[in-house]
Amino acid sequence: MQSSPVLFISIALSLLCIVLVVVQWLYAKNIKTKLMQSVGLIDELYKLNTSQSTQLESLRSELNKNKALNQELKKAYGNFEKNLEAQLEKMGATIERLEEQDPALKMYSKASKLVEQGADMDDIIEASGLPRAEVEVLISLHARK
């Protein structure tokens, strides 16, 4: 009868070992499944990272092109501004020459400047020599601006 408890303990231990092996096998299978899912996610992240890196490089390249274009536009605008200022100076000199050549134009130019400065009608008439009606027209035209 003594062999019976030993036999029973041996069978129980064997069954326990089998259960532990099955549990460990199921656990390993579960770990393998999760590992495969993790590898898939890592692969997707790598692809996404590569795609975003490509897009980032493309955007950097476009930004550099835009910076270069911006510099060119600034330079062109600066040249345009200088040319425009030179033309304005030439026009101003031409206007002054024309005013000096034509006394009537000189009178209107002087009257116009006085109107812009806010001089009163009598001062404008006295300084320019224009009739009152013409000075009134100049003042009304200036008021409309």
Overview features:
145 residues; mainly alpha; rod-shaped; transmembrane; DUF2802 domain-containing protein; DUF2802; membrane
Characterise this structure:
This protein has helices at 3-101, 103-117, 121-128, 132-144. The protein has a domain at 103-145. By secondary structure, the protein is mostly helical. The chain is built from 4 helices and no strands. Helix 2 (103-117) runs antiparallel to helix 3.
Task: Provide the helix percentage.
Answer: over 70%
Helix count, DSSP H or I runs of 4 or more residues: 4
Beta-strand residue percentage = under 5%
* Overall strand count: 0
Radius of gyration: 48 Å
How do the helices and strands follow one another from N- to C-terminus? HHHH
How many angstroms does the end-to-end distance come to?
Answer: 127 Å
Main sheet attributes: strand count, strand direction, barrel closure: none
Shape estimate: rod-shaped
Based on secondary structure, the structural category is mainly alpha
Keywords: Coiled coil, Membrane, Transmembrane, Transmembrane helix
Coiled coil: 56-101
Protein name: DUF2802 domain-containing protein
Organism: Glaciecola siphonariae
